[in-house]
C-alpha cells in the first residue's frame, strides 16, 4: 500500500513526535514536585516580593512595597524614550472608549 520510502518518512515523523511528547514529561513532573498552589489568602494578601496577578492586588494599586529603588537612587534626568501617538486608531479595539 505504502512505498518503503513513504513508510520510512512516516515512521521517522511518528518517532520524532513521540520523543518530543514523552521527552518533555519527566521535566514537567520534576517541576510539579516544588509547586506551591496559590490560595485565596495569597491573592487577597500577596507577599511584597510576589506579583501573583497583573496589578499585584485586587484593588489594582500596582504599587510595589519593595524598597530597592527609591527617590534617592533614581536618576531624575531627561526622558530616555517615548512614543508619539499621532494616529492611534490602529491600536484601538472596537470596545475602546477614546
Tell me how many strands there are.
Answer: 0
Content-based structural category:
mainly alpha
Mean of pLDDT: 76
Strand content: under 5%
The SSE order reads HHH
Poorly predicted runs are: none
How big is the Rg?
A: 26 Å
What is the straight-line distance between the termini? 63 Å
Q: Report the helical percentage.
A: 25-40%
**Biggest sheet record:** none
Overall form: extended
Count of helical regions: 3
Please tell me about this protein's structure.
This protein is mostly helical. The protein has 3 helices and no strands. About 0% of the residues are buried.
Gist of the model:
By secondary structure, the chain is mainly α. The protein has helices at residues 4-23, 25-33, 40-44. The relative contact order is 0.05.
Tags for this model:
single chain; 98 residues; mainly alpha; 3 helices
